[in-house]
Amino acid sequence: MTTQTTNSAPLTAGRLARWAPWALLGASLVVSVAVFAVASPTGNPADFNIAGAVIVGVLLYMVLITVISSIAESRRKAVDRLMTALVATAFTVALLPLISLLWTVVTNGIARFDAEFFSYSMRNIVGEGGGIVHAIWGTVLITMMAALIAVPVGLMTSIYLVEYGRGRIAKGITFFVDVMTGIPSIVAGLFIYSVFALIIRPGISMGFMGSLALAVLMVPVVVRGSEELLRIVPNELREAAYALGVPKWLTILKVVLPTSIAGITTSVMLAIARVIGETAPLLLTAGFTASLNTNLFSGQMMTLPVFAYNSYMNQGTNPDASLARAWASALTLILIVMLLNLIARLIAKWFAPKTAGR
């Protein structure tokens, strides 16, 4: 009996090595940078066009990876690598404004990140010094009150539209929610200010008015986000609960909401992120002050976006110190939003329905 041995080709035959695309990208960027450096009319490093060099390098990489892949692999694989490069480039371009924004805020605001900045207010401060403790308290209290008002209203509205709403009433609610989604924030501030001016007195400002204005902006975001998440809950889960004799309200409470709690938490955080940086409605409703005020129902309250706006517009006797406070308050606001998103992730993880694989 003769044994025939065959030499099978390796699985990686006809494919580029994993390091090849990265090597081509690096080589393309190096060549592009060298060409731009040589072609620079002045030879001054400050005049070097780094954006143009990167763009030309990426375009050169796309040409090289397509040609080399079509020769070494196949035409189909070359098109796949070209599309991958285009998608990665588009993603990077989309990130550039965000990276630039974060870099600008961090570099300009980190100078005032000290103990005094987070422990003092601006009361009796004219030039240097001072802090934003009053603005932090105002932002947290006003936003929390707005969330306490908007989240139950928005969530119950979405439950009605998904589970109970039929006919003209549901269509009307959906229409008005869509209209509210697109209203300018200043309109919400004017609406709340007008209501309180008619009921109490003109010129009134307090933190609770700011919470109501932000709640008007939050409700449609919560409704639309929660509605879509409730709709994707499988009907089989509802039918299984009904088959066991569970009433509809308890099915919603024990089955539908726990199943979609992670997504609902994300939609709530998106709504909070939507309003926490609003300036115009809070200028009209909550006003601004240099002192600490933690009473939502009495007196004006300062918030971080209003503090940043006021520090930039009214720079006083020391413009550099005022601008530093404005940048630092903007950085603080970004960090608060990041912290809220992390908390939302943890809440969604804790309350999400457990599966057998967990």
TrEMBL record:
Membrane topology, record value: Multi-pass membrane protein
Transmembrane regions listed in the UniProt entry: 20-38, 50-72, 84-111, 131-161, 173-200, 255-276, 326-348
Predominant subcellular localization, coarse grouping: membrane
Keywords carried by this UniProt record: Cell membrane, Membrane, Phosphate transport, Transmembrane, Transmembrane helix, Transport
SUPFAM superfamilies documented for this protein: MetI-like (SSF161098)
Record keyword Cell membrane present: yes
Localization (cell): Cell membrane
UniProt key word Cell membrane: yes
Domain ABC transmembrane type-1 intervals: 136-344
Domain of life: Bacteria
Family annotation (PANTHER family): PHOSPHATE TRANSPORT SYSTEM PERMEASE PROTEIN PSTA (PTHR42922)
Function of the molecule: Part of the binding-protein-dependent transport system for phosphate; probably responsible for the translocation of the substrate across the membrane.
Family: Belongs to the binding-protein-dependent transport system permease family. CysTW subfamily.
Name of the protein in its database record: Phosphate transport system permease protein PstA
Organism per entry: Microbacterium bandirmense
Gene label: pstA
